[in-house]
User: Which sequence fits this backbone?
């Protein structure tokens, strides 16, 4: 009995569905309006996507600049600490020498004593150039300041850092060929520099901007091979994924 009632109900539903008229799409103005709405919606989606990509790139550039400034502060503090330790060691050496000299050989206050001034000039020049970027944010003035430091102190232990700073400033300015020359100096002349991996990444980014994707890929892969666990490698991997 229950099966008979269920069967009848199913037949009733099926017959009702077959009898219902099929929906009819409007032809003419309504269809055209619907297409235009869909096109407008797609355009809005595309525009929103482009805006998101633009915002993301802007945030990435901002983060890179902040990282650059933080690294500069760390370098400056490390440099000042090294200088302080060097002065302390020199002071201990002077005290040790004085304690072993006879009293007659100790120079009087009026006797001129030769003291190295080149390191003080080197320190002041480098810190002045860095401060133009970090404290005063005078990026245009920092470019000739770093160039002058490199020319005046080519053998400085901070010459690779100065070249990297110079390359970064020129890159931000859009002077890609000049920036490339500065980064190449770091890569070729200072193989032990902590800035070499970062310089390779920057050279890859310059190659990208110059539509040399093959060259960019080779540079990024070099970073992954030579500096696999570094921040430079993470950035190179990110750039590779976007090629």
Assistant:
């Amino acid at each position: 009995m229950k099966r008979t009632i269920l069967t009848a109900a199913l037949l009733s539903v099926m017959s009702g569905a077959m009898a219902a008229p099929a929906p009819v799409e409007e032809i003419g103005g309504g269809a055209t309006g619907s297409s235009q709405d869909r096109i407008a919606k797609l355009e809005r989606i595309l525009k929103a996507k482009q805006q998101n990509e633009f915002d993301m790139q802007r945030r990435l550039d901002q983060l890179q600049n902040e990282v650059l400034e933080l690294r500069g502060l760390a370098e400056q503090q490390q440099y000042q600490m090294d200088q302080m330790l060097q002065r302390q060691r020199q002071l201990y050496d002077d005290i040790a020498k004085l304690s072993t000299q006879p009293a007659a050989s100790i120079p009087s206050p009026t006797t001129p004593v030769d003291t190295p001034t080149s390191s003080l000039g080197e320190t002041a020049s480098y810190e002045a150039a860095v401060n133009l970027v970090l404290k005063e944010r005078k990026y245009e003035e920092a470019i000739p300041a770093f160039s002058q430091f490199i020319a005046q102190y080519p053998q400085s232990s901070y010459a690779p850092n100065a070249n990297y700073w110079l390359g970064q400033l020129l890159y931000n300015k859009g002077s890609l060929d000049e920036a490339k020359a500065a980064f190449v100096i770091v890569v070729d002349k200072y193989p032990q520099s902590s800035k070499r991996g970062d310089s390779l990444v920057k050279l890859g980014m310059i190659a990208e901007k110059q539509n040399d994707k093959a060259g960019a890929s080779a540079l990024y892969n070099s970073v992954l091979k030579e500096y696999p666990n570094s921040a430079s490698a993470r950035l190179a991997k990110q750039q590779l994924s976007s090629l």
About this structure: The CA atoms of residues 198 and 231 lie 8 Å apart. Confidence is low (pLDDT under 50) at residues 5-11, 16-31, 91-120. The radius of gyration is 34 Å. Residues 43-98+119-241 form a domain with the Serine Threonine Protein Phosphatase 5, Tetratricopeptide repeat fold (CATH 1.25.40.10).
